[in-house]
Amino acid sequence: MKRTKNSTHLKPALAVGAFLVLLSCDSFSKSGDPVPSEDWPNIILFVSDDHGTDALGCYGNPIIKTPNLDKLASEGVLFANAYCTSASCAASRSVILSGLYGHATGSYGHVHDYHHFSTYDDINTLPKRLAEAGYTTARIGKYHLAPEKVYPFQQVLESNQRNTVQMADKCVDVINDTDPFFLYFCTSDPHRSAPFNPKRWDLPNRFGNKDEGYPGVEEVIYDPTEVMVPNFLPDTKQSREELAQYYQSVSRIDYGFGRLMSLLEKAGKLDDTIVIYISDNGVAFPGAKTTVYEPGIKLPCIIKNPFKKNKGVINKTRISWVDLAPTILDMANVPYDKEEFHGTSFNEVLDVEAAKGRDRIYASHTFHEITMYYPMRVIIDKNYKLIWNIAWRMEYPFASDLWASSTWQSIYQNDVGNYGMRTVTDYMMRPEFELYDLAEDPDETNNLALDKAHADLLKDLQKQLRDFQSKTSDPWLIMWDYDASLQGTGVNL
Does residue 361 contact residue 104 with C-beta atoms inside 8 Å? Predict the structure, then answer.
């Protein structure tokens, strides 16, 4: 049922019986337009750029200052097992707004410059669906999607993408004057900033930080000796210096997020607005971003739904960014055909501690930059994770900014044999299959794929992964039975 702003926004079975009741209640404004309610909530989807669970107070980091996001978690739900499907900005964002894996939509990697990956024209996306249902849709900040006609927003707001306070202030009219609204709020923090190739290899990237700071932002400066170095990184002077810069950028996000919440409160809309905080992929360090290891794809997800009773919940349900579009449509009570999505809504289990039957997810990474061809497919089933490195005979490719990072160069320039908990050789040259028990081996260093005791498990997960590729129209399905003569023939799956 298509809805407009003048519709009653009721399910058909309820419409007739409830009509007289609605006339006497406060679910309509004086103009006759619906105002936000549990059936017609405002929705904010706040997406940061390259932010891992490693740098949030509510996820266990006692050093970083993120009071506003910590407050959001205390008032809502923190997901402990939330995953993107591809640890690359544009590819991940296409999944967030389409509910489909990038390998099925042509969204294989970056859209900008000569990379030029683009979503198929006939994909029906979240902003389209919400606008058709009667929502005002607006976006601000990093877009990184193409083509625009597939991901259209009615309002496009301009701002400095590194200054979340300024971004929040630019959203005042949307917050104050539109009901209901869907606001897609995307900062460029804490992504690495130019120049990616500094004059000296040992200089830390600034992650968008500036000596003069940003107007309206109270910057938090961190001591490199006090940061927490994740296990996947080497504990070096360069790593610590870059982590301190990363922390500062994250705290700037948090400060602007607080400003956005204060604007909601001032407008009297805190109690009828669903707020979702996520990142597109993991932190921009080698070993996280562009990989399908846990630091690359296991991400923050905090949701405050004021219409849910339970608060401060830590939800251990395993969810994926491919689930977000149908979940948001359910939150907005917008009807859809479940078969149109690869993901499944988790709205009904939002405020539980763990939902039964939701312990399997998939990931699909193919490109970052056009020069970074390294397709990987992943299944996580309960505690076990299988990675299929389809191009395993190739050296693992680097994103340009990660290669130039002082964290990596401190290893490369000095011919160091280890990078974090892996050898450099193991990081660069990966086996075809990697099988890990995440409960016993959260750092993914003990590959069980060649262990005879896990042969049956490996075979079962391979079959599940292959079935997933078939069901989601993955062109790389043919690589299970590789035949060079098929390349370029346009074989139908």
Answer: no
